[in-house]
Amino acid sequence: MAKITLDNLAHSYLPKPAGEGDYALKELNHVWADGEAYALLGASGCGKSTLLNIISGLLHPSQGRILFNDHDVTAQATAERNIAQVFQFPVVYDTMSVRDNLAFPLKNRGASPDYIRDRVQAIAAMIGMEAELNRKARGLTADAKQKISLGRGMVREDVNALLFDEPLTVIDPHMKWELRTQLKALHHEFGHTMIYVTHDQTEALTFADKVVVMHDGRVVQMGTPQELFERPEHTFVGYFIGSPGMNLLDAEVSGTTAIVAGTEVALGADYGRPKGRIQIGVRPEFVTLAAGDTGLAVTVRRVEDVGRHKILRYDFQGAEINVIAAEGQAISPDMTRLIFDPRAINVYADDWRVSPKSPAEEAA
């Protein structure tokens, strides 16, 4: 296992990048702890796979260094980095049996026949392919071949890191859940450093100890699922995490109050007078319906019943505000006001979260 350090790392696919806009991966300085499971999460084209390929050695960065346990591996080939990588689409040896595909990395490293047999049997059970061990890989379905790829990536216990590049794309939905659970169990058992690339927030949040959210070639937040949900550091994180994502409204903020299109909204802390384009963000789970004169006056667009709750979509002066209402919650026509929980409101200036004043600052 390895601690992975990204030191002044950046990459451009252009031979002579002229500015920040030419970089697919903008400057990164991060330390990823030995033995933790990380998910790289973001939309297509945000730089996730570029970063993963630099870590694995398939791509040499335009600038900066990669260190494993404080040892510079930037110039090392993939084989020298002692990592295992599983790609989005299955890579298997069609002429080999499933057993030989799984055993291949261990045979290459001279492991004993008894160890290979036991380890292959354990991995086959993990991926649900014990009955197919003696079958040739040729003719298997795409999801079966991807399970072989996953198994081959997990068969070694001595790797510095396990890297997964959207490995469940071709796997059926039920098996996706099973394999995510198995990957989590593998991590708990062996403590490998794992990095898992995905654009699916469910995969990221259920797999990782820390989620690394990427947007436009940079890391905008790294944190636990709870941190990403409660305190998104960037508006993209608020929008991308959650279903629906965070409601964002243009506002003027002064101290403990925000003015949204002429309506006062109480904030849970003192934010002073932030500069730039100011927005407040609140998740649909922390918006309540009310009748009367208090709150934002809205009109309903539609109601979506998803079984365990309803998603209510409202119009507020041209902006959409989403509300999550529990199944069975009373909703009447006179409930045309929305009230935000002040403790759950975040304030943003030019898309980045503004920290509220500390109690000592407020007292001063």
UniProtKB/TrEMBL annotation:
**UniProt-listed Gene3D superfamilies:** 2.40.50.100, Nucleic acid-binding proteins (2.40.50.140), P-loop containing nucleotide triphosphate hydrolases (3.40.50.300)
Instruction: Report the InterPro entries cross-referenced here.
Output: AAA+_ATPase, ABC_transporter-like_ATP-bd, ABC_transpr_FbpC, ABC_transpr_MalK/UgpC-like, Mo/tungstate-bd_C_term_dom, NA-bd_OB-fold, OB_MalK-like, P-loop_NTPase
Its Enzyme Commission number(s) read: 3.6.3.20
Report the superkingdom from the record.
Bacteria
The entry's cellular-component GO terms read: ATP-binding cassette (ABC) transporter complex, substrate-binding subunit-containing
Alphabetically sorted, this entry's keywords are: ATP-binding, Cell membrane, Hydrolase, Membrane, Nucleotide-binding, Transport
Q: Which GO terms describe its molecular function?
A: ABC-type ferric iron transporter activity; ATP binding; ATP hydrolysis activity
Q: Where is the ABC transporter domain?
A: 4-241
**Which top EC class is given?**
hydrolase
> What's this protein's family per the entry?
Belongs to the ABC transporter superfamily.
Q: Which PANTHER family has this protein been placed in?
A: ABC TRANSPORTER ATP-BINDING PROTEIN, MALTODEXTRIN IMPORT ATP-BINDING PROTEIN MSMX
Q: What is this protein called?
A: sn-glycerol-3-phosphate import ATP-binding protein UgpC
Organism name = Roseovarius gaetbuli
